[in-house]
Amino acid sequence: MNKTINMGFSQQTFNFDLPNEPNLQKEVLAFIDLSIADNDQITLDQVVNHFSIQPDITPITTTLNLINELFRDDKIHLIIDGTKYMSENIKAVLSEPAHSPSDFIRRRKIIAIIKTHFSEPGLWKDVEIIKPEVIDENVLLRAQHLGIKLFNDVGPANQNSLCRSLRRYLRSWKNNLTEFQKIAQTGNYPGTSEIQKGLYLLNKLLSIHDPCKFIETFLNRENRLCDVSSQFAVLKNFYNDQIDVWNILIEAVEGFEPNRMLLAKNPDVKKALETLCSILKDPKPYGMIKEIRSLISIVQAANDPIVKKQIDSAKALAIEKIEKKIGIRADFLNEKNADPDTRNKALFPLQTGKKKIKMASGIENIADYLNEVTDQFDDVIDMLDCHKT
Fold it and tell me: What is the pTM of this model?
């Protein structure tokens, strides 16, 4: 019995005498591993399309031949119409003598299915490529138990399913830590070191796409993964549930800083403010976050009267300056014998600015309104000069 199967394109056979192209084969296998690891599956058309658009324009027949070599060497298996095809099984079928017409028909059917799906581009999308299940069962059980320890549930303990499930959980950790890092990098947020260490380990693991190597490395990193797991739980709680309180802390400490010397005159307030500052600088402040609001209340109660006094003083000074400008402008209008309409236009901005300052809630607002009034004052003086001229 001839073991050759003509697949319908150049050199695509199962006689195992194809030329060896180790570099291209490794490249194809690496792409298959990467796609399965990141997308859970890969089909024949995706592999062919990927390599047919490469800069060196790998011929389609070359890619198909390389896939055949990988299949021949039992480095990949195929699923066609829900049936798994393995090189070992096909070789066994072709080697067996046909004892009955049904044996012969079964053999011809296998050959026809594979030939049809490989020779017709429209059917390539129906050929799924999977990795062989080659990891020892004891190793798989160990990996499953570690996965349950880290993630509570990881599904069935078979190689490809377990690998995909573990990678999905690790990618979820990575995505969360990446988002936490974006916030932490803006400053005054804890966990930067833990986030960086966690991402380093996760990136190392997720860069391994071969299931055997991945699961082996996953088990070898058990202690570090357990550390990342406990740190991730703390970071997730902080960045998802406590970040609003932390932002309040940042804003409060910044607001109290200008009056720190005055606040320090009260021992209880001084202690509360110092505690807030120490929490803000603590690399692991998580146990003290529940104290933040009460500590802020203590300092706020002392700071509010100081701020009110400062605002009242700033308002009085600003209003005094505006009233002087109103007096200057009124004298100027009298000197120019301005009509009522002109007088109203000239004085209205000053009166409006004065009202805004009385209603202002912060010193910065008062300064802005005063600058606005000063600019308007100069503009109107210039306008009246030009008008008179």
Answer: 0.70
